[in-house]
Amino acid sequence: MTTTSGKEIILGVTGSIAAYKACEVASLLVKRGVRVTPVLTCSAQKLVGPASFEGITGNQAVTDMFDSGQNQEIEHIAAATRADLFLVAPATANVLAKAAQGLADDWLSTTLLATRAPILFAPAMNTNMYGHPATQANIATLSDRGCHFVGPDSGTLACKTVGAGRMSEPACIVERSMRLLENSDDLKGRHVLLTSGGNHEPIDPVRYIGNSSSGKMGFAVAEEALRRGAKVTVISGPAEVAPPVGCKVIPVQTAQEMCDAALLIAPGADVVIGVAAVADYRVEHPMTEKHKRNGNDLTLTLTQNPDILAAVGAQKKNGQITVGFAAETGDLVENAQAKLSKKNLNLVVANQVGVSDSGFGSDTVRAIFVDASGAVEELSLQSKGDLAHSLFDRITAILA
Ligand code: CTP
After folding, report:
1. d(CA 140, CA 135)
2. Pocket of ligand 1 contains residue 326 by CB under 6 Å
């Protein structure tokens, strides 16, 4: 069961033309029983007044860090501590840059630093500003730190350009907020095991065959499982990012090591998810001494690694859920269906690789759920954290 009633949200409003839509966001949140503390930056106040937010929320809008009478220099810490969610809608390029850098020069940016609540940004800006490498780098930094994003949508913007940058619809922002507020105990008492990252298959003591898996998707899945109260074990091959705090990490290098660990732990797991980009082949006879360049070409014989998920699927116990990720460049659904039956899985997340906004290393992903009942659901481009959220909604539905 989930409940969001009585939860508290700080609604940060910054100086985008979409600021007027923040009133509707506030109104929809209040209708869902959430207590909303509005915070308006100076620029936001040039576009929309605090009185509207005060009327809608019944709470005093925070407008000035040093407004005597509001005692806000103390209150910003109190509100940041109390909040269950910090929503910034609309979020300008400026506030994203400040948050990414840790700047604290007004109430909103100061409180963003002080809060320990989840943070959700709803970006809204001109297409070129959104696409600028600086903004994209700031979004990547904030995503890596665990911040959530909703939108932006594409369409005709206030500046008459067409493209990405329009703030998501208020209803959509509120739905995302509700999900982040939900009580997260639906995996309490469950053990989630996942493989994550890539593999290094040795050629000799100093060289290996590897792939470009960043580990971001696996760790997003681990984080979501932790948020829902699960005990989480991650068998992690080499990764670029750090695992979330709270999970048990078993570091491995090769596919065989990953397989041995998975087969050992899987019998005690309720859910096994293969997020790892497993090396399908290894060097048959890795050299024990460093190979010296000797003027000749080098031929390596590769031999197949075990299929870890198929091996787990073959010993699957009653009620256990197994899930695979299928990174594909084409025929996503057909390939996912084939893997679903071959590996005895309940669900496959087919994700598009080979495009810039999805796949290895990117922060966003285009995915399709294909399940054992034959259902196919195509998801919109979204962050890896959001995909993990939708994935566990599916998994908990199957477990129930
Ligand atoms: N997988 C696995 N062991 C392997 C290969 C893949 O456990 N040796 C898992 C992955 O973690 C993923 C799923 O199986 O969850 C699908 O992986 P993918 O690489 O897409 O499929 P393969 O079975 O390797 O098939 P192919 O590479 O030919 O598409």
Report:
1. 9
2. yes
Residues 213 and 160 grouped into a single domain: no
Confirm or reject: Cβ of 274 under 6 Å from ligand 1.
yes
Asked whether 197 lines ligand 1 (CB < 6 A), one says: no
Residues 369 and 392: beta-carbon distance below 8 Å: no
C-alpha 309 – ligand 1 centre gap (Å): 8
State the pLDDT at residue 361.
Answer: 62
**Which of 147, 159, 172, 247 is flagged as catalytic?**
159
Distance CA 146, CA 119 (A): 8
The structural domain count of the chain equals 2
Mutation choice for ligand 1 from 193, 196, 307, CB with most ligand atoms inside 8 A: 307
Do 256 and 107 lie in one domain? The reply is no
Q: Are residues 232 and 293 in the same domain?
A: yes
* Structural domain for 281, as ranges: 191-399
Q: Is 196 helix (H, G, I), strand (E, B) or coil?
A: strand
User: Which ligand 1 atom sits closest to the C-alpha of 309?
Assistant: 7
Q: Is residue 2 a part of any domain in this protein?
A: no
On whether the CB atoms of residues 147 and 137 are closer than 8 A, the answer is: no
Q: Judge if the beta carbon of residue 258 lies within 6 A of ligand 1.
A: no
Q: Do 164 and 137 share a domain, yes or no?
A: yes
Tell whether 175 and 250 lie within a shared domain: no
Q: Assess if residue 3 is contained within a domain.
A: no
Residues 127 and 212 in one domain: no
Please work out, in degrees rounded to the nearest 5, the angle formed at the alpha carbon of residue 228 by the alpha carbons of 227 and 234: 70
- Give the DSSP H/E element, type plus range, for residue 179: helix 170-181
Nearest CA to ligand 1 atom 20: 326
User: How many degrees, rounded to 5, is the angle at CA 76 between CA 72 and CA 81?
Assistant: 150
The secondary structure element, H or E, covering residue 233 is: strand 231-236
153, 173 contact by CB (below 8 A): no
The reply to whether 172 belongs to the active site is: no
For ligand 1, whether the C-beta of 309 sits within 6 Å is: yes
Q: Does 272 score more than 50 pLDDT?
A: yes
Average pLDDT over residues 365-387: 88
Domain end, chosen from 128, 157, 181, is at 181
pLDDT of residue 2: 46
Residue 36 has pLDDT above 50, yes or no: yes
* Model pTM score: 0.68
Q: Which of ligand 1's atoms lies nearest the C-alpha of 327?
A: 20
What is the atom index within ligand 1 of the atom nearest the CA of 324?
15
